């Protein structure tokens, strides 16, 4: 019952009792108000599955079915928040996705999907039909980003969809590693070369060796002509994880850092080129275009020289 319905009831009631004495009209009015059922706005009442999970990083993930939708079919959202403000946990939204569902969300789990320590989120959906089949979607939780990875469907109702997802992910990883060509990306193009450790200072002679090995001739010319005054140190993939599906991302991130170190202020085209080459390297290393595109967007937003961070464009020339 909404406000308009209540108003109409009271209006008709007043027409009927207007000939009664004032004290009786008051009595009947109070009685009518008490008999009106409480109102509610359906949009204000949470519906369906809703769960919040706090991560080790302090961030938290919220998974919720679409509000107002039937439980048997519809959508669900996965939202990531920083968790910085404990009193206002939903103030700092980082990102999220909306996925379709054929059934109702039954549970979610934070698991090591590839058995290499990279955490993922699995959302399990149970079909509302007689078979009670299961489906599951896997998501990658990386820094301040959440990305869809893989899904399975039509699973028997008593099976474990997480185990099936892991098998598919590991199988696709092996196929990717076997089929990856050496011509794909600079990080794959060089011969086997042990790169300097993360956080160590790298000499100019070693930088020359690395550039020659990976075919970075233009970069080497740039460095030899005007070496940056600050020594080169790579922090790896900065605030990103260093491996994915058992594959090290360090070579791609190291070469990207090298290009950023040698950059001059205002070289927007050179920075775009470096970020694009990182995207290609990551795609070749992992076999994942979504992961590569996510990292590309992260470097475009966070790597600008104006932030003057240790990983910002031109950090070798910052005074």
Could you explain how this protein is built, in words?
The protein is an alpha+beta fold. It has three domains: 3-39; 44-179, Periplasmic lysozyme inhibitor of I-type lysozyme (Lipocalin, Beta Barrel), CATH 2.40.128; 186-307, no CATH class. The chain contains nine helices and twelve strands. The protein has helices at residues 3-17, 22-35, 161-179, 186-189, 204-213, 217-225, 250-261, 268-286, 289-302, and strands spanning 50-54, 60-65, 74-81, 93-101, 104-112, 119-126, 134-142, 145-155, 201-202, 232-233, 243-244, 247-248. It has a four-stranded antiparallel beta sheet, with no helix packed on it. The chain has a four-stranded antiparallel beta sheet with strand order 5-6-7-8. The longest helix has 19 residues, at 161-179.
Q: What is the highest CATH level, the class of the largest domain?
A: Mainly Beta
Oligomer: single chain
Q: Write down the secondary-structure element order.
A: HHEEEEEEEEHHEHHEEEHHH
Q: Report the average pLDDT across residues.
A: 82
The total strand number stands at 12
Head-to-tail CA distance between termini: 68 Å
Radius of gyration: 29 Å
Number of domains: 3
